[in-house]
Amino acid sequence: MNEPVLVQTDGHIGIATLNRPDVLNALSVELMDKLIDHIEAFDRDPDIRVIIIAGSEKVFAAGADIADMSGATFLDMYDRNNLGRWMRIKMVRTPIIAAVSGFALGGGCELAMACDMIVASESAKFGQPEIKLGVMPGLGGTQRLTRAIGKQRAMEMILTGRFMSAKEAYEAGLVTSVASKEQFLAEALRLAGRIAEMPPIAVKLAKESVNKADELSLQEGLAYERTLFYSLFATEDQTEGMQAFIEKRKPEYRGK
Hints:
- The structure is a single chain.
- By secondary structure, the chain is an alpha/beta fold.
- It has two domains: about 190 residues, 2-enoyl-CoA Hydratase, Chain A, domain 1; about 45 residues, Lyase 2-enoyl-coa Hydratase, Chain  A, domain 2 (Orthogonal Bundle), CATH 1.10.12.
- It contains twelve helices and ten strands.
- Strands 1-2-3-5-7-10 form a six-stranded mixed sheet, with helices on both faces.
- β1 and β2 form a beta hairpin.
- The longest helix has 16 residues.
- The chain is globular, with a radius of gyration of 19 Å.
């Protein structure tokens, strides 16, 4: 139980649970290295079709580990290349769901936003309070939060450090769904289970195409989407899916 990240599987779902309760799951370098190693291992496993990153009912992650940074210099932070670690999350092809209850602040909010979907409990609180420590978000907060909820609300949250409730986050488009504190993880598992029933290659390419929408113009994005769409006609799952539809039966996808 001293491991900063606990892992388990549930059918085609890989679950990584943050496990530093004594410091509210503060995202130390050790925790992030192990978390990224685990989700990359899930991504390489052909049996895993969806990944969940979860915290506890009390807290998802209350931020970066300030003890890791308090005495750091510019050169220290540059050499650590924390952002380079986080870029590895973006390279994971398997869909990632953040199961968030309690505080998701600073790096915790950025970690949740780095996932593809967020299932939040009613007690969830999202925020980027770095400004109160004399800094600013540095792991994607200014970029992902702005894309998720718009410039005006993101600016206000980042410049004041205000927290956003689960209800407000849902209404703003930051989270996918909201469940009770007792059911948030079960809801994340239900969502993961629905995705895991879909053809794995199509799911990965669809994720890739959606993520490109933030980076490409509409015309470039449409061309990119079209190329991925055509490529799926080289898969056995496409043949199975369409044949099953014609035969009015449930398809059996094998990720081929």
